[in-house]
Amino acid sequence: MIDFDSIYPVIDTMLITPYRIGLPAAAAFWMGTALIAFWCTIAGELSMAVIYIWNREYYTDLNRKMTRMHNISVAAIRHKKKDTFKSANKWANEYFGKVFFSHAALFAVSLWPVPFALAWLQERFTGIDIHTIPYTEFGLGYPFVFILSYILVRYGFSKVRQFIPLMKKIDKMRADDAEKAGQMTSWSELVPADTKNAEAKISANPAPAESKA
């Protein structure tokens, strides 16, 4: 069993070191906290990738079933089969809910390092104001710096992940799985062709505006 009490001093030393570099206090705090946000982002993204790979077949199956039931419900409307539509649409909504919450849970996995980072920051920097809001005495401490840094780091990571081999591979897996799930039929396909042509003509040739006397 891993003894956390013996590991914590090592982790603490690693995390606090960037705060002690030769920069002004505020700049050093921002840099140190940004590095923690970066490590939280990396750990979270790796965890999310592992969970996705582990449950890849399950996610693909859910998407496939959702797409299939949706397409059946659209076809039922096209052929005016009310009972089939109700049944298929019910299942399509159920699978949509499962897909939505599975993706939400997958994203939540990427956030697990955040509480630990905040707990460490609280222990180290509670009561220390990094900035003060102008014309007030309200101070901004480590939560403000960390949350802002984390948002910026995750946004920046989303822009460069396509150049990271592992992340690029995960994104390709998702694209392949989405293709395997099939193409969802659009509800717009139920609109008669002559109606579409009429709407297209109206859009291409709008009625002239009435002149004012």
Automatic annotation (TrEMBL):
Membrane-crossing segments per the record: 27-54, 99-120, 140-157
Source superkingdom: Bacteria
Protein keywords: Membrane, Transmembrane, Transmembrane helix
Name of this protein: DUF106 domain-containing protein
Source organism: Maridesulfovibrio hydrothermalis AM13 = DSM 14728
